[in-house]
Amino acid sequence: MAGERITAVRLGAVIRARAAAAATEAHTSGSCGHPAAGLVSALYPAAGVWCPDCGHDAVSDLLLTYGCLMCGHPARAGLTQARAGEVDVLLRTCGCCLTADSPAPVPGSPDPT
Ligand SMILES: [Zn+2]
Ligand SMILES: [Zn+2]
Predict the structure, then answer these.
(1) Would you say residue 102 lies in a domain?
(2) Which of 12, 32, 48, 81 has the fewest Cβ atoms within 10 angstroms?
(3) Per DSSP, what are the bridge partners of residue 89?
(4) Cα 47–26–90 angle (5° rounding)?
(5) Does a structural domain hold residue 58?
(6) For 11-57, how does the pLDDT look when each residue is reduced to its tens digit (9 = 90+)?
(7) Quick one: three-class SS letters along 42-98?
(8) Is residue 1 part of a domain?
């Protein structure tokens, strides 16, 4: 396993907006049905909400994604986890997008902090 890590940092507004959008789409798609379901992949939010057991493939897909989901630049090592409501959204990002607070293309993120 090449570093199945999840990094916790203070995330920027751009990435939090992306996570919120992914969470919304995942909720629309449903969940794996297990009590531990609470993870969403920003790569395939249409896969729904899954638990760690069901999410192995989704996590692998994320880890194998070369580029940042936001800008396509080479991503940082490991995954980024962004809390969005009741779920945690897993993303691949580069260092710039991780903390970017510049206006996101996704509207509806009024919290500037
Ligand atoms: Zn499950
Ligand atoms: Zn980026």
Answers:
(1) no
(2) 32
(3) 40, 82
(4) 80
(5) yes
(6) 899 999 999 999 999 999 999 999 999 999 999 999 999 999 999 99
(7) CCCHHHCEECCCCCHHHHHHHHHCCECCCCCCECCCCEEEEEECCEEEEECCCHHHH
(8) no
Q: Report the distance separating Cα 60 and Cα 2, nearest Å.
A: 10
- Cα 18 from Cα 1, distance rounded (Å): 27
Domain span at residue 21 reads: 6-78
Number of domains, the chain? 1
Compute the distance from residue 50 Cα to the ligand 1 centre, in Å.
Answer: 5
Task: Compute the distance from residue 74 Cα to the ligand 2 centre, in Å.
Answer: 8
* 94: in domain: no
Q: Which ligand is nearest to the Cα of residue 14, counting in written order?
A: 2
Separation CA 28–CA 3 (nearest Å): 31
